[in-house]
């Protein structure tokens, strides 16, 4: 479904991505792990063109895009098939939970208001936020905001959802409720790429793990292989720091 | 207070208040309304980094902020006619000058507020498929105007008082009228105190209004 070839990105002469290549098949749950600064977030942002790439090819549903030279039209075409869940939720602060979900449907997709509202309520129900649909982000906890953000992503019927450290900004006691929602999506075989530091979670839901360090994919494989029998020394070192 | 002073005070009260209601207030509201339109457009252009026009906007802000309002009024009313630019009335001239003046200051207020809206709001908009203009109009600008509101009200209250400068270009607003009364009654202490009180009254009404509107605006984002 998605194929990324030789993706490169440099910030101020500091290479962040040094040629990333991987494939995503429909139904894959791919988790990207690795130390801070390894380029995981930049990778996701480049995939959705929030950060422009310096070089790279993206094949999405059989169509090939030059990631360094994409037109606005092409970017919109790709974004229509994707959704993004941010580390700090980024709910629209001047909109209620419901409006956050309907905004993209009504304004960008020109969906009929009644249909959009119905769809939004369905999605809020799915993440357990229907009773709070009229609350503003400032009236919701971090975990609740992130669940609304996931509903907002789901409402767009994306072919793939990118999660950028969805629980890193949350208080420990709120992490579970968000992971539970993502686990449910994985069970539904939704295609997702998740950047996360929640090793136990990642291990239990992923179909494949990418371990990144220093702007490259150091090792790639099934959770059993990466966590049970990693080949690379760097992978072992990294996982050791998480098993204290 | 002796009877003569009291009588002057009462007689002049309506004589000052009426031009206040008929000239000072309309002048302020009209100029401020135009100023808000100018300020929003200028702030928007500078925020979005539109080439060339952005530099024109910066030049405008530089000129207006760098010269006295009184000089701007004199330049427009007495100076421009020499270049063939004439005004229908001093009132129109005053509206234009006050609008351009406040527009420059307020554009900086709004620009700052636009910059204070987190970048993530724009990114989230892109990710749900909205265009830049849609994001600005529906997400960023409403949040920015809410943040800028107290500072913009400052500008409005300041303008109520600054309109007294328009008396210098023969606009018959409150202060102009007061000066006229002083020349016939020779009671500057009493009359300038009186007009000061009326300015204070107008400003107080606006301050009350500010508190009320702020509450409404906060309710819109779910804050107490």
Q: How is this fold's topology laid out?
A:
The complex is a heterodimer of chains A (244) and B (224).
Chain A: E1 2-11, E2 14-24, E3 29-33, H1 40-47, E4 55-60, E5 63-66, H2 72-80, E6 82-85, H3 97-108, H4 113-126, H5 142-155, E7 160-164, H6 172-187, E8 192-195, H7 199-205, E9 208-213, E10 216-221, H8 223-228, H9 233-242
Parallel strand pairs in A: 3-8, 3-9, 6-7, 7-8
Antiparallel strand pairs in A: 1-2, 1-4, 4-5, 9-10
Helix pairs in contact in A: 3-4, 3-5, 4-5, 5-6
Chain B: H1 3-47, H2 53-66, H3 69-79, H4 90-116, H5 119-127, H6 132-162, H7 174-185, H8 188-220
Helix pairs in contact in B: 1-4, 1-7, 1-8, 2-4, 3-4, 4-6, 5-6, 6-8, 7-8
Please describe what this structure looks like.
The complex is a heterodimer of chains A (244) and B (224). Chain A is an alpha/beta fold and 244 residues long. Chain A has two domains: 1-81 and 160-244, 3-Layer(aba) Sandwich (Rossmann fold); 89-158, no CATH class. Chain A contains nine helices and ten strands. Chain A has helices at residues 40-47, 72-80, 97-108, 113-126, 142-155, 172-187, 199-205, 223-228, 233-242, and strands spanning 2-11, 14-24, 29-33, 55-60, 63-66, 82-85, 160-164, 192-195, 208-213, 216-221. Chain A has a six-stranded mixed beta sheet, sandwiched between helices. Chain A has a four-stranded antiparallel beta sheet with strand order 2-1-4-5, covered by helices on one side. With 224 residues, chain B is mostly helical. Chain B has a single domain (3-216), classed as Orthogonal Bundle (MetI-like fold), CATH 1.10.3720.10. Chain B has eight helices and no strands. Chain B has helices at residues 3-47, 53-66, 69-79, 90-116, 119-127, 132-162, 174-185, 188-220. In chain B, α6 (132-162) runs antiparallel to α8. The termini of chain B are far apart. The mean pLDDT of chain B is 94.
């Amino acid at each position: 479904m998605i194929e990324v070839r030789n993706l490169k990105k440099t910030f101020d002469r500091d290479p962040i991505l040094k040629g990333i290549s991987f494939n995503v098949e429909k139904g894959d749950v791919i988790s990207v792990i690795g130390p801070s600064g390894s380029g995981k977030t930049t990778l996701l942002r480049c995939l959705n063109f929030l950060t422009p790439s310096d070089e790279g090819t993206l094949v999405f549903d059989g169509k090939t895009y030059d990631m360094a030279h994409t037109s606005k039209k092409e970017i919109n075409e790709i974004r229509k098939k994707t959704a993004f869940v941010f580390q700090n939720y980024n709910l629209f602060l001047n909109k209620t939970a419901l409006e956050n979900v309907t905004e993209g449907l009504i304004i960008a997709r020109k969906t009929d208001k009644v249909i959009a509202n119905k769809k939004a309520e369905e999605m809020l129900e799915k993440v357990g936020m229907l009773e709070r649909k009229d609350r503003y982000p400032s009236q919701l906890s971090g975990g609740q905001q992130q669940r609304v953000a996931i509903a907002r992503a789901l409402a767009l019927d994306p072919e793939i959802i990118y999660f950028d450290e969805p629980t890193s900004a949350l208080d420990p006691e709120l992490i579970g409720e968000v992971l539970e929602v993502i686990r449910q999506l994985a069970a539904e075989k939704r295609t997702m790429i998740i950047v996360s530091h929640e090793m136990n979670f990642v291990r239990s839901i992923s179909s494949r793990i990418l371990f990144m360090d220093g702007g490259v994919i150091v090792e790639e494989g099934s959770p059993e292989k990466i966590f049970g029998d990693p080949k690379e020394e760097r992978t072992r070192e990294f996982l050791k720091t998480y098993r204290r | 207070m002796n009877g003569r002073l009291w009588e002057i005070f009462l007689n002049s009260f309506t004589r000052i208040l009426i031009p206040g209601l008929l000239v000072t207030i309309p002048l302020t509201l009209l100029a401020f309304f135009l100023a808000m339109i100018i300020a929003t457009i200028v702030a928007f252009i500078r925020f979005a980094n539109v080439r060339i026009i952005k530099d024109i906007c910066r030049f405008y802000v530089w000129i207006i902020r760098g010269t006295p309002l009184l000089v701007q009024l004199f330049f427009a009313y007495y100076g421009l006619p020499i270049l063939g630019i004439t005004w229908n009335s001093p009132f129109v001239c005053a509206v234009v000058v006050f609008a351009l003046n406040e527009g420059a200051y307020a554009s900086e207020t709004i620009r700052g507020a636009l910059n204070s809206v987190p970048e993530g709001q724009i990114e989230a908009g892109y990710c749900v498929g909205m265009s830049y203009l849609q994001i600005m109009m529906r997400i960023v600008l409403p949040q920015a105007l809410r943040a800028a509101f107290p500072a913009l009200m400052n500008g409005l209250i300041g303008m109520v008082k600054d309109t007294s400068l328009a008396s210098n270009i023969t606009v018959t607003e409150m202060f102009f009228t007061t000066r006229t009364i002083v020349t016939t009654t020779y009671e500057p202490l009493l009359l300038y105190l009186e007009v000061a009180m009326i300015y204070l009254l107008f400003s107080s009404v606006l301050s009350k209004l500010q508190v009320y509107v702020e509450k409404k605006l906060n309710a819109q984002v779910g804050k107490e």
